Amino acid sequence: MEGNKLMAAISYIWILFLVPLLAAKDDAFARYHANQGLVLFLVSIVLGIVAIIPVVGTIIAFVGGIATFVFTILGIINALKGEMKPLPLIGGISIIK
């Protein structure tokens, strides 16, 4: 479980959500955190696109970027503690089954 905690924590660092999907594909804990990492990754891409919109888009992207950073820290902490706690606002989204 210790190795999977680290692997799950890595999944919150942008595109590194792929690491637990490839290295621990049969572990439900790692897959759960990889899903959360994938959702955060997609949110950050959408925020990058929204940032192109003058003024309002920039403000939304800035606030969303701060939220994404906080969610990343929360996800890493949850993974290292061995918890499968959903992230606020986006934790209910399941892409990886």
Descriptive overview:
By secondary structure, the protein is mostly helical. Helix content is 66%, strand content 0%. The protein has 4 helices and no strands.
Name the features.
single chain; 97 residues; mainly alpha; elongated
Largest beta-sheet characterization: none
Fraction of residues in β-strands: under 5%
Instruction: Give the beta-strand count.
Output: 0
Shape: elongated
Please tally the helical runs, counting DSSP H or I stretches of 4 or more residues.
4
Overall structural class, as computed from helix and strand content, comes to mainly alpha
Low-pLDDT stretches are: none
Oligomer: single chain
- Calculate the mean pLDDT score and round it: 90
Computed over alpha carbons, the radius of gyration is 14 Å
How would you spell out the order of helices and strands? HHHH
In a nutshell, what does this entry contain?
The chain is mostly helical and 97 residues long. Helix content is 66%, strand content 0%. It is built from four helices and no strands.
SSE map:
Layout: H1 2-10, H2 18-23, H3 28-50, H4 56-81
Helix pairs in contact: 1-3, 1-4, 3-4
